[in-house]
Specification:
Helix content of chain B: 40-55%
Structural class of chain B: alpha/beta
Shape of chain A: elongated
Helix content of chain A: 40-55%
Strand content of chain A: 5-15%
Number of helices of chain B: 11
Bound molecules: guanosine-5'-triphosphate, potassium ion, magnesium ion
Oligomer: heterodimer
Number of helices of chain A: 11
Strand order of the largest sheet of chain B: 3-2-4-1-5-6-7-8
Order of helices and strands of chain B: HHHHEHEHEHEHEHEHEEH
Number of strands of chain A: 8
Largest sheet of chain B: 8 strands, mixed
Distance between the termini of chain A: 26 Å
Largest sheet of chain A: 8 strands, mixed
Strand content of chain B: 5-15%
Number of strands of chain B: 8
Chain lengths: 278, 291
């Protein structure tokens, strides 16, 4: 029978392994606490070592966390009334705009038309950046002057889609940190005015402990339906995915795996857990 | 002192030591555990945290507190000294003509930091120019041009060119009458071999006085390998930490400094060109320990 002391070392090692994979500390500890209480009193079979038992239990626990709320994105788009409006949110520089460009390609590959709406009326070069993507992809871009109202731009995108039978509106937003109350209030307003069908939170797979804090704050300001983790090609351990799924209870839907338009992969929970636990 | 603003759990542990003149092993290991937690939550590399905490533990047990110093203050002093030892002083940035090359991961804040640094130099009375060599990211030219405009500094870029190395060469020539040349580069990460080759070429043409690695304060454990690769390729002389106006603690920068044997040069604290500060160790150490 497993006693508390038997678990101390293996659980400590696992905690360090999770931290090395960028799982946030509070999340790692919560997962390990569950493990501890599930394992204490379990009877060890003759074959399995305590370490193996713990690793198996961790694999299951991580899979539980990361599989939360998974839904078939393609099916959701197929079944939704058109136009489907998707707004992308997240902190500065994580890859929102690039993900929108990739998503336009992804949708086209599956037979859906889309229009891009640039709700980033703030950052230098934001209009030029998304315009270049739109031109390369052959998509229509709705944009206003710098300094304009972001909600109004995305709203115009929706009206354009309605008038022109476009299937999906991809609404970009300016990057912002969750510590800026003005900008978070602006995000709430966008959410209220546009009332998107889906809000996708974008973060980067290379993010560390802060992933939890920002996912929580963005979810509070404009409730998210799922997440995309970019820059997975930078050889990150992917623990940020665990953190985001755990605190929001929302699924990670895609991984960004490069800067090309086709570098958007369906997220596979089992694959991530295998990477994390081996 | 700087460590007054410690995270609540660390402060709690330390206050239990109040009044004690000697620490036993249990006291020390409790404090060391809390310091480990703070540093791990700040994204400092796990093995670096273990090395640091071992050093702190050994010293706290072996060194006699100087007469009149409480055990608590003695431990604090050791923690502080070990961190200062690692972080060091701000990267030296002489106020004289020079060329600075910026490098780093996609989206880390290079282009914004280039304009901020140019603004900083211009306030010091030098004439800076920003040279944009990013031919890959859509809108990179316009972004850098607009940011340079906001900083009211000279700018060179070529929206029609496609060779960053040639742009760097032309840019240095075209801005020859500027004192400080800040060369921005496209984002890249350690595994992109062709892009790593590219920045090595840019580095050899630009021949910078200083190469700075621009790191997002939120970067996780990957900071180590990234810093290692950039240092191997172009030699890193200093780190710029961006987005410190958020809640990320920036421990990745500590990892990078350790990995590249360099120091921290500038801090980015917002999206406008004025949101730049020179690095100052005390504030940063407080942040790492969870103020
Ligand atoms: N390696 C890699 N780079 C990516 C990926 N996704 C985006 N990027 C790059 O990351 C950088 C920032 O991407 P953007 O799309 O501009 O990010 P953003 O979130 O829109 O940025 P802001 O609008 O400034 O907040 C660009 O250089 C992109 O090419 C990815 O999956 N892998
Ligand atoms: N809040 C905040 N945002 C910042 C800071 N520094 C940069 N940013 C933002 O981060 C995003 C990315 O900055 P860029 O300067 O485009 O980053 P980059 O490294 O040049 O990106 P690539 O060229 O695509 O690799 C933009 O939205 C910037 O406005 C900072 O210190 N604080
Ligand atoms: K170095
Ligand atoms: Mg963007
Ligand atoms: Mg740039």
């Amino acid at each position: 029978v497993l006693e508390e002391e038997d678990l101390e070392d293996p659980l400590w090692n696992l905690e360090m392994a999770l931290l090395e994979s960028d799982v946030e500390m509070g999340v790692a500890e919560a997962i390990l606490d569950d493990l501890r209480s599930n394992l204490i009193g379990e009877t060890k079979s003759q074959m399995a070592s305590t370490g193996d038992l713990v690793a198996d239990a961790l694999r299951d626990a991580l899979l539980d966390v990361i599989s939360v709320g998974q839904f078939d994105f393609e099916e959701r788009i197929a079944e939704a009334e058109k136009p489907v409006t998707i707004v992308f949110t997240g902190v500065n520089g994580v890859g929102k705009t690039t993900t929108i460009a990739k998503m336009a390609r992804y949708l086209e590959d599956r037979g859906y038309s889309s229009v891009l709406a640039n709700g980033d009326t703030y950052r230098a070069g934001a209009n030029e950046q998304i315009r270049e993507h739109a031109e390369a992809l052959g998509k229509r871009l709705i944009a206003h002057e710098q300094g304009g109202d972001p909600a109004a731009v995305i709203y115009d995108g929706v009206e354009y889609a309605e008038a022109n039978d476009v299937d999906v509106v991809l609404g970009d937003t300016a990057g912002r940190l969750h510590t800026s109350s003005d900008l978070m209030a602006q995000l709430e307003k966008i959410d209220r005015v546009v009332d998107p069908d889906l809000t996708i939170f974008v973060d980067e797979a290379v993010a560390g402990q802060d992933a939890v804090e920002r996912a929580k704050q963005f979810d509070d300001a404009a409730e998210i339906d799922g997440a995309v983790l970019t820059k997975a090609d930078a050889d990150s351990q992917g623990g940020a995915a665990i953190s985001v799924a755990y605190v929001t209870g929302k699924p990670v839907l895609f991984l960004g795996t490069g800067q090309g338009y086709d570098d958007l992969d369906r997220f596979d929970p089992e694959e991530l857990v295998a990477d994390l636990v081996g | 002192m700087v460590l007054d603003n410690l995270g609540s759990s660390l402060r709690g542990t330390l206050s239990k030591l109040q009044g004690k003149s000697r620490l036993d092993e249990d006291d020390v290991s409790e404090v060391v555990k809390e310091i480990q937690r703070s540093l791990l939550q700040a994204d400092v590399d796990v093995s670096l945290v273990m090395d640091l905490s071992d050093a702190i533990e050994t010293r706290a047990l072996e060194e006699e507190p100087p007469a009149g110093t409480s055990a608590r203050d003695h431990v604090l002093k050791i923690v502080y000294e070990e961190l200062v030892d690692l972080i060091g002083e701000s990267t030296e940035i002489p106020l004289e003509p020079q060329t600075i090359l910026l490098a780093g991961l996609q989206g880390s804040g290079k282009t914004t930091s280039a304009a901020k640094m140019a603004w900083w130099f211009s306030k010091k009375g030098l004439r800076p120019a920003v040279i944009q060599t990013d031919t890959f990211r859509p809108g990179a030219y316009d972004q850098a041009e607009q940011m340079a405009d906001r900083a009211e500094v000279s700018f060179y870029g070529d929206p029609d060119a496609d060779d960053p190395v040639q742009i760097a060469r032309d840019g240095l020539e075209a801005t020859a009458d500027a004192d400080v040349h800040i060369v921005d580069t496209a984002g890249r990460h350690a595994l992109e071999d062709d892009l790593i080759d590219e920045i090595e070429e840019i580095d050899s043409v630009v021949d910078p006085d200083r190469s700075l690695l621009v790191l997002d304060a939120a970067i996780g454990q990957g900071a180590k390998d990234q810093a290692r690769q950039f240092d191997d390729s172009i030699g890193i002389d200093g780190v710029v930490i961006t987005k410190l106006d958020g809640t990320a603690k920036g421990g990745g920068a500590l990892t990078a400094v350790n990995e590249t044997e360099s120091s921290i040069a500038f801090l980015g604290t917002g999206e406008t060109v004025q949101d730049i500060e020179r690095f100052e160790p005390n504030g940063f150490i407080s942040r790492l320990l969870g103020m």
